[in-house]
Amino acid sequence: MMMRMLVVALAVAAGRAKPKKRPAPPPPDDAAVDAARELAARNRAALAAILARLAGGDEARLCAGPFPEKRAAALQWLHVPKCGSTFATTFVKYGCDALAKRPDVYLGAPPPPDLDKPDGRTLGTTALARMAGALCGDDHRFGLLHNDGVVASLTHFAAHYPIQNPKHDPRVAVVLRSPNQRTLSAYHFGRHLWGSEMKNREGTIGSRHFIRWRSFISAAMAGPRDYAAMPGLQGCFTKMLHGCYCATRPKEVPPDLRRTYAGDASQVACPWQWKTLDVALARAAAARLRRFAFVGLQEAYNASVCLFHKRHGGDVDPAEFGLFNVGYAQRDKQHHLSKAQQAGLQREKYGLSSLRAKPSWDEAPLGAYVDAIDELVWAAALERFEADVDAVLSRD
């Protein structure tokens, strides 16, 4: 009875005026489920191999100077939710030479005296963007593209906007992480649900249907497994590479919300249209990812920062290796770093000393769940990262 009430309530929250009985979806395709779980296992093994080679000396080689001069071409940062907010320091210092010369400016640092109206006790992404705008004006390397291709104001670059026009792909820089780790991080970060169906003038949530759906989902969470399997939460990478927001409102609600299975195709509300979230869409997203200007891995964050500079130039600022948002809303003490520990890491110098274990979430609460859609994109990210490492190290 409770499950039936849950489904009916979600149906109403999803925007239907009156709940209607719908036929049950076909049973899970066991072969598709098995294939998705096998891919996830291969991805875990591939990531472990990458981390092992980095620890074996490749990260030290990546982080050893000299680094080339900065390129003149502008880049766009695709900021996927819970995938490397700290990259804002690297991105802004790369884009603004005047800011790159400021060792006191980085994500999480105390606001400097010359920053008007600081947002808080530490610098956030918006404050960094505001400083870059003040110091560099139009003389920067930011390619800030919204879905319509119009150059946006600098203060919007850090928001979780998706990309749409394929012609912008060669300018995009992104940092991704394991889909399960991203999902768990979002769950523990206040059940993070960033999405929309239309942009309002502020570029934030503008759809009443989405707001109702998001509010219901936030209240209905029973745990990480239920959160991961909720309709509209899967395929964050895939959706953002196709002009959709990370969290989307589903058009159809499966009768059994707790049995959302790998490979399930469903229509989701993207800006101005419905899109079918399936393997074909994921493969197209993976193809786009391979054309990006840069692909980094959060699990190999320090090496990713050095790889970015090896490919696009500019010296590395030690502040780029700082950790940001670590321990936020995390109840597990295993993952929590004290403010003193974070402050120490914030100024840690790169090189061999930068090799440290990153906090990661225990995936046991997800059970056998796998995000079959995003594992395809994640596989492409792992392949691209390792290929770029090989290319850079072969030149040094």
UniProtKB/TrEMBL annotation:
It comes from the Eukaryota. Gene3D superfamilies: P-loop containing nucleotide triphosphate hydrolases. The keyword Signal applies. InterPro entries: P-loop_NTPase. Residues 1-17 form the signal peptide. Keywords: Signal. This is Sulfotransferase domain-containing protein. It comes from Aureococcus anophagefferens (Harmful bloom alga). The lineage of its organism: Eukaryota, Sar, Stramenopiles, Ochrophyta, Pelagophyceae.
